[in-house]
């Protein structure tokens, strides 16, 4: 009997080892909310399936996904609308894989063909012409917009941009040509009709030109004019300038590479306003406006800088200027070899507080004066080292009085020559809590309130001027149970980390 059972067991085991799975059969696909669901069946009565494998390709790229053994349908990701695909399915047990099913062809979900883009319009741009449009709704899944420009002599140009763009520079279109521009939108499911045409005129966006004075004499003013945009087409300049007791003089200049000399109507001690326009056959820019005067012997004499004075945090410069006519303005220029500054004084004055002169630096100062006939030569420069010239010194005689409710921290009054900006006070109590206080550079005390009884407080004071922070003076203040100061050890010093 035992031998018979063994034989039967071997037969069953051998039979199972020889079992093969039939290939699944794809029964179709279903389209659900812009998704493709593939369905299949399998002729297998066992309960030990472990997975199904679905492969599908559009001929360019193959995708592979896994389905659970109980599933007989699966959403296929990455299926492009309107593209054709071939799919196969395979099933597997722990020991056996079925053959793949017969290939099944299907098409990605269908989208309507996109409508033509709308809202197309042209905007001027410093680098050319900017085309803008309203985006086609996302439901159409546009991939590419195509801009089509048709010009004279059967010229046709195309420019493509990706779907997330709603504006583009027409950089493949010739600046000097006129175009009728249309657009199409393309998705996986087709291309829209062309939009209504928009006329794009071949007019460059001319900016006001760059104008510099290159020379002045007692009878002429010479200027140089250059396009603000080197790529813009400029054929000529129109120059219009004021003259005394007469209409404006107007010049048309076609040789734009040379300097331009103005002479007619110019007069000594008259401030001429000069307007320069850039032009081409289709456009004229807004003007660049400058003012210029002839050279005159009646301008102020060369100014002399007489003194530079620092009081507190402010520095004043003083000068002397001789002029045969009324002074109008003074231009003071100063630099610390890193930054340059300009201050203006109006009228017949001889001093000014400089707005950007900071301490702990050496400045080079020079100036020019103006009267009704023009500007003087610049003065001889002077160098001035603005105080302070060294960092603030460590505060001295730091002392605390009062109680925990209102503690008065005092120190010696600073020397005015140090030009202090502020003080920084750090307080750390015995619990590790840290507080920071600020005091102006001119004061020598600070009131600290609400200290804890039965505490030891570490206090450190440092001062700052334009040259930097001083070393810090530190003390410890012990507060008793009644809020009284019971111990104040000798001060020490520390280095400010700022």
Which features would summarize this protein structure in a list?
1 helix; Immunoglobulin-like; mainly beta; disordered N terminus; 5-stranded antiparallel beta sheet; 41 strands; 498 residues
Residues in β-strands, percent: over 45%
> Between the first and last Cα atoms, what is the distance in angstroms?
98 Å
Query: What is the radius of gyration computed over CA atoms, rounded to a whole number of angstroms?
Result: 44 Å
CATH architecture of the largest domain: Sandwich
General description of the model:
The strands form 10 sheets. Strands 34, 35, 37, 38, 39, 40 and 41 form a 7-stranded antiparallel sheet that branches. Helix content is 3%, strand content 49%. The chain folds into 5 domains: 21-107, Immunoglobulin-like (Sandwich); 118-200, Sandwich (Immunoglobulin-like), CATH 2.60.40.10; 210-292, Immunoglobulin-like, CATH 2.60.40; 304-385, Immunoglobulin-like (Sandwich); 399-495, Immunoglobulin-like, CATH 2.60.40. The chain is mostly beta strands and 498 residues long. It has 1 helix and 41 strands. Mean pLDDT is 90; it is low at 1-18.
Helix-strand layout with pairing:
Layout: H1 2-17, E1 25-31, E2 36-41, E3 51-57, E4 62-67, E5 73-76, E6 84-92, E7 104-107, E8 118-125, E9 128-134, E10 144-150, E11 156-162, E12 167-169, E13 179-187, E14 190-191, E15 198-200, E16 210-216, E17 221-226, E18 236-243, E19 246-253, E20 260-262, E21 272-280, E22 283-284, E23 288-292, E24 304-311, E25 314-320, E26 327-335, E27 340-346, E28 351-354, E29 362-371, E30 374-375, E31 382-385, E32 399-402, E33 406-410, E34 422-428, E35 434-440, E36 445-449, E37 455-465, E38 468-469, E39 471-479, E40 485-487, E41 492-495
Antiparallel strand pairs: 1-2, 2-5, 3-4, 3-6, 6-7, 8-9, 9-12, 10-11, 10-13, 13-14, 13-15, 16-17, 17-20, 18-19, 18-21, 21-22, 21-23, 24-25, 25-28, 26-27, 26-29, 29-30, 29-31, 32-33, 33-36, 34-35, 34-37, 37-38, 37-39, 39-40, 39-41
Signal peptide: 1-17
Keywords: Signal
InterPro entries: FN3_dom (IPR003961), FN3_sf (IPR036116), Ig-like_fold (IPR013783)
